[in-house]
Design brief:
Keywords: Signal. By secondary structure, the chain is an all-alpha fold. The protein has one domain. The protein is built from six helices and no strands. Helix 1 runs parallel beside helix 5 and helix 3 packs antiparallel against helix 4. The radius of gyration is 14 Å and the shape is globular.
Length: about 140
């Protein structure tokens, strides 16, 4: 993993999962946009981290599964967040085939954004716009 930023995202993923378990009313989720974005970030991070050989296989996927399980989603909601994770993975897999300095820089940007979004979710301040950030916002062209 990529140092302190990865540790923060890991800690926040665990915190988001724990906080979600305390949410008795899944019907009204003001943080849905942030949770969707967090799923995309975890998918992107999973791909980039594995591409650069710094992650345990399926480590990020396991964190995403813990969050989804803690939310006690129905089948349709679960599919939506799993699709967001997979979208994050596929989007980067389409343009990043080898680990380069740009790939590592992009990974750092995803880790930083993940820490920011995860912090909002863990603090109950979720509700940011989905689809912000990501590969386009990172300002890095594909390798």
């Amino acid at each position: 993993m990529q140092g302190a930023a990865a540790a923060v995202v890991v800690l926040l993923a665990a915190t988001v999962a724990a906080a979600a378990a305390d949410d008795p009313a899944p019907a009204a989720r003001p943080f849905e946009a942030d949770l969707t974005r967090f799923a995309e970030i975890l998918g992107a991070t999973s791909y980039l981290d594995q591409l650069c050989g710094t992650a345990e296989p399926d480590a990020w996927r396991g964190r995403m599964e813990a969050i989804v399980d803690a939310q006690r989603f129905g089948a349709e909601e679960r599919r939506r967040y799993v699709a967001a994770f997979n979208r994050g993975t596929r989007t980067l897999a389409a343009v990043h085939r080898v680990c380069t300095a740009r790939t590592r820089a992009l990974l750092q940007r995803y880790l930083a954004e993940g820490a920011e979004v995860g912090s909002r979710l863990a603090d109950g301040r979720g509700g940011g716009a989905a689809g912000t950030g990501g590969a386009g916002a990172a300002g890095l062209p594909p390798d």
